Amino acid sequence: MSIPSGEMISPREPLIDRFGRQINYIRFSVTDRCDFRCVYCMSERMNFLPRARVLTLEELATLGRAFVDLGARRIRITGGEPLVRRNVLCLFRELGRLREHGLDELTLTTNGSQLESMAADLREAGVARLNISLDSLHPERFRRMTRTGDLATVLRGIHAARAVGFQRIKLNAVILKHRNHDEVVDLTRFAIDHGLDISFIEEMPLGEIGEHDRAEAYYPSDAIRADLKQVFTLTPTTERTGGPSRYYRIPETDSRIGFISPHSHNFCDTCNRVRVSAEGRLLLCLGQEHSVDLRYVLRAHPGDHQRLKQAIIAAMGIKPRHHDFQIGGQTTILRYMNHTGG
Ligand code: SAM
Ligand code: SF4
Fold it and tell me: Are residues 41 and 337 in contact, defined by beta-carbon separation less than 8 angstroms?
């Protein structure tokens, strides 16, 4: 695969929405498929998209180029599990080259299951930072939360990523009451001991996921902070990493402790991002359905880079002011997180 070189790269044209927010952070869900079935993300018997409906790696690379033309500084690859997509390293290499054209950072969110064998290649391809999901340090519990995951494999993946030189690896832990809320101190200690950052995430009501009751599982960031304060001193910081986490530091450690709290703290005023779903829908907000079908533009007008960019610019006009998540799921978004890209 190679990115067509024609008209690369025009003067950068920033994407500004109608509320004056500059959009410079793009997330691509490169597959809806996954080797795990986390209880908060998917139903146990998940139906995946037919391949023809998923963007090809070439289409994803073309989109990356268009967004960078339009001023994107960061691209995060997510999914589903990005590393189970066949030949995905080719995409990382292509997107990695966009660093010569204005991209500051290519990053990846992964469940860690494939990292042991892929970490070195990802680093070579230009991936700057990794977020690795880790909800529990108990093998049995990890298996119950992910339904199919193997904790030891993920831990080996984390160690491999550190060994090949990834800095500032961040763990993501979705915290659910009665499932893993009693592990926040242990997960934090694990992060500190291994020189990692960690973000605790409130569950979001994305997709109908069967038997799991979201209202019952809700465990707010304030409760997590209170639990941590029993053991650690948490000092608030103004640090941001381009995402919605609010960070704290624990004195005399290198680790940042983040909280992603879509329910208890609305992070929309400073939203700088859009997402592209595995099917090529440009999603203007994680918590609303406003979207534009970029796959249609790509397939109806192959090679028409200007038309693609115009479609992206026009989409800024429908980016909502904020999401509308409610605890208890009255406003459940029908999309699944794995289509959307977390
Ligand atoms: N498979 C990769 C992983 O798990 O890291 C990348 C995709 S996953 C959808 C991205 C992130 O979204 C993960 O950290 C996951 O824990 C989080 N996530 C999934 N479903 C969620 C939900 N309903 N609410 C909050 N976070 C969720
Ligand atoms: Fe897969 Fe990530 Fe969803 Fe878990 S959170 S099922 S690892 S996509």
Answer: yes
Atom of ligand 1 nearest to the CA of 41: 20
CATH of the domain at 321: 3.20.20.70
340 Cβ below 6 A of ligand 1: no
Question: Is residue 128 assigned to a domain?
Answer: yes
Q: How many structural domains comprise the chain?
A: 1
- 30 CB within 6 A, ligand 2: no
Q: Ligand 1 centroid vs 41 CA: distance in angstroms?
A: 6
What single string gives the DSSP state of each residue in 7-24? T--PPP--EE-TTS-EE-
What are 142-158's pLDDT values in tens digits? 999 999 999 999 999 99
Tens of pLDDT, residues 11-41: 566 899 999 999 999 999 999 999 999 999 9
Enclosing domain of residue 206:
25-340
Distance, in Å, from the CA atom of 161 to the CA atom of 127, rounded to the nearest integer, reads 11
Cβ atoms < 10 Å from Cβ of 117: 11
Taking residue 19's Cβ as centre, other Cβ atoms within 10 Å add up to: 13
Q: Which amino acid is at 287?
A: G
pLDDT digits (tens, 9 = 90+) for 228-244: 999 999 999 988 766 67
DSSP state of 325: -
Residue 11: inside a domain: no
In SS3 terms, 178-206 reads as CCCHHHHHHHHHHHHHCCCEEEEECCCCE
Are residues 131 and 108 in contact, defined by beta-carbon separation less than 8 angstroms?
yes
How many other CB atoms are found less than 10 A from the CB of residue 229?
11
Question: Maximum distance among all alpha carbons in the chain?
Answer: 58
Whether cis (ω within 30° of 0) applies to the bond prior to 9 is: yes
Residue 5, domain member (yes or no): no
Q: How confident is the model at residue 277 (pLDDT cuts 50, 70, 90)?
A: very high
Tell me whether residue 4 is in a domain.
no
Residue 5 has pLDDT above 50, yes or no: no
Ligand 2 touching residue 79 (CB < 6 A) = yes
pLDDT at 329: 47
Beta strand 256-260 pairing with 246-249:
antiparallel
